[in-house]
Each structure stands twice: as C-alpha cells, then as structure tokens.
Design goal:
mainly alpha, 6 helices, 69% helix, 0% strand, globular
Amino acid sequence: MVYESRLKNQQADALFEAILLIDNEEECYRFFEDLCTVKEVQAMSQRFEVAKLLKAKKTYNEIEAETKASTATISRINRSLNYGADGYELIFKKLGISVEDK
C-alpha cells in the first residue's frame, strides 16, 4: 500500500526532494538555516525531543519541565504518535530508538 500524504503537492515534493539530497549534518544545518527561522528549527527540534520522551514513557509534567514544551504541544505530539502517519516511528526505527506497538 502506498502512503498518500495530506501535505502532498508540487512544492512539498520539491522541498522533500531537496532535503533528500543532503549528504551530511553540516549541509543539513546550512540548508535549514537558510530555509527556516531559528525559532522554526527550535520548535521542530523540541517536538522531536518531546516525541522521544513520550516513547520513553515520561509524564507530561516531566516532559514539560525538561523541554519547556506546553502541554498542548505534548498532547498534539502524543496524538501524532498514536494516530498519525507513523513518521516518528519510521525515524525512531532508523535511529535505533525502541518503538512500541500502537
């Protein structure tokens, strides 16, 4: 079965094709520094950290204290982990982060 994203359009295709051409961390930093604001990259980094902590079974209070993410953000990420497109799960597997069944 082929996954059909709600985000899919020509502009998103072009962006993701460009991201897939990145060879290393330095290139990644350089591209995202030009593409995004510092706040946007910080927000994405925070969300990813929240997702990892949720997978580690940390409580909302622990995650809020560690990441400074709002409970609304934590809840949204938790919904993505449970009912989303499994994007976090794909990356967790590639990174060797323990993935539990939904």
